[in-house]
Design brief:
Layout (H helix, E strand, L loop, with lengths): L8 H19 L32 H70 L10 H49 L30 H20 L11 H54 L16 H6 L9 H61 L1
Length: 396
């Protein structure tokens, strides 16, 4: 039989609640974390243990220092991996800059040679303009010189455009190299205490990157690396294989020099023919002069004596034999008629001979002038050829 309770139920429940609180304190250790907070660890996912939380251990300070050290080392290793990529991009940019420097040197030398060739072309034209008027007939050398001048001007403009393009590319590469150098310096500031425990990636090998790493903002340096690589690739693809080489004008230059020598040899050969013809003309003039002297002497003899005291000449028409014959009216001798006709014929012969001598002398003077002009043209062509040879030797 149950003994009836005297105390009230409220009074009894209050005491038992205090007892339950004491038992609960014995079962659960004290923690600084609120009871309502749930832990994310996999071992505390069940409902029975979801409200339990273990207090920090006595080595909590050392544990936190070790964890932070691990985070710092991981960040430094990621920074070193970034350094590998930055230095690779910087190395490629430097190689491209060095190549452009070499090509710019080649272009500058080629441009200087083209300018020298233009000056040589102008001097050649000036030398050939000193020729006499009779030697200034248009020839193949003049046509070749005009073609060479046009080609040289085009080549000069082309080399100038190439130099401007190289300067523009170098400016862009200098900007990328400056950015890459600044990022390398910034990344290397946290690499003093990192051990050399890793090796740089091979060429073309992709390195795993943790984009969610603490403090790691890779957007900026990735943008610089991609920009540098894209710039180098674009410049490499936009350049033709022989873009740094000038047009080969050596054959044209050698052809012009050979044409000048050929023209000089032709002038020499023509001058030799002129010299031979000049000798024949001199012989012809002397022969005609002898004929003229003989005809003139005959003409003077045909005219008769100049004075009555000239006994070396023949008798005139008033000699005694003729006077006696002319006593008859029909006895007229044709001697006077024939003498007049012969004198007129001799006069015409003298006139023709004098005209032939004048024409021969005029032709002889033309031959002399032409020979002197040919000699002058030959010397000027040879001087132009020597000038071009000296210019070609200095150019090499």
């Amino acid at each position: 039989m149950t003994t009836p309770r005297v105390g009230s139920a409220t009074w009894q429940d209050a005491s038992y609640r205090t007892i339950n609180v004491a038992h609960a304190l014995h079962r659960r250790p004290f923690t600084a974390i609120g009871n309502r907070q749930k832990l994310k660890s996999a071992e505390f996912e069940s409902r029975s243990t979801s409200r339990q939380c273990i207090a920090p251990p006595p080595f909590h300070r050392d544990l936190m220092a070790q964890t932070c050290n691990a985070v710092a080392l991981t960040y430094m290793r990621d920074a070193r991996a970034s350094m590998y990529r930055l230095r690779a991009a910087l190395l490629e940019t430097n190689r491209h800059i060095q190549r452009l420097h070499k090509e710019r040197d080649i272009l500058e030398k080629a441009h200087a040679n083209v300018r020298k060739d233009i000056v040589t072309n102008q001097e050649t034209v000036q030398i050939r303009n000193l020729r006499p008027k009779s030697e200034k007939y248009p020839d193949k050398v003049d046509t070749s010189l005009r073609e060479e001048q046009k080609s040289l001007l085009d080549e000069k403009k082309h080399s100038e455009n190439q130099l401007h393009e190289v300067s523009r590319q170098l400016k862009a590469l200098y900007v990328n190299r400056q950015k890459l150098s600044e990022f390398c310096k910034e990344r290397s500031r946290v690499l003093d205490l990192v051990g050399e425990t890793s090796k740089p990636p091979a060429v073309g090998q992709e390195m795993p990157e943790n984009n969610n790493h603490l403090w790691q903002d890779k957007t900026a340096y990735w943008a610089v690396i991609n920009q540098a690589q894209a710039t180098c690739k674009m410049f490499r693809n936009t350049q033709p294989p022989n873009w740094q080489k000038q047009a080969d004008l050596r054959e044209m230059k050698e052809g012009i020099t050979g044409a000048l020598r050929t023209k000089a040899s032709e002038s020499s050969r023509i001058r030799e023919d002129l010299t031979l013809t000049l000798g024949d003309s001199r012989n012809f003039i002397q022969k005609e002069q002898r004929i003229h002297d003989e005809v003139e002497q005959s003409y003077n003899l045909q005219l008769g004596p100049l004075a009555s005291t000239d006994l070396t000449l023949r008798e005139s028409l008033t000699r005694p034999l003729v006077k006696i014959l002319q006593r008859h009216p029909v006895t007229q001798l044709p001697e006077s008629t024939y003498t007049a006709e012969g004198s007129a014929s001799l006069q015409k012969t003298l006139d023709r001979t004098r005209q032939k001598i004048r024409i021969a002398q005029f032709t002889q003077q033309q031959l002399k002038n032409d020979s002197e002009c040919k000699l002058s043209g030959q010397r000027l062509d040879q001087a132009a050829a020597r000038l071009r040879d000296r210019s070609a030797k200095k150019r090499q």
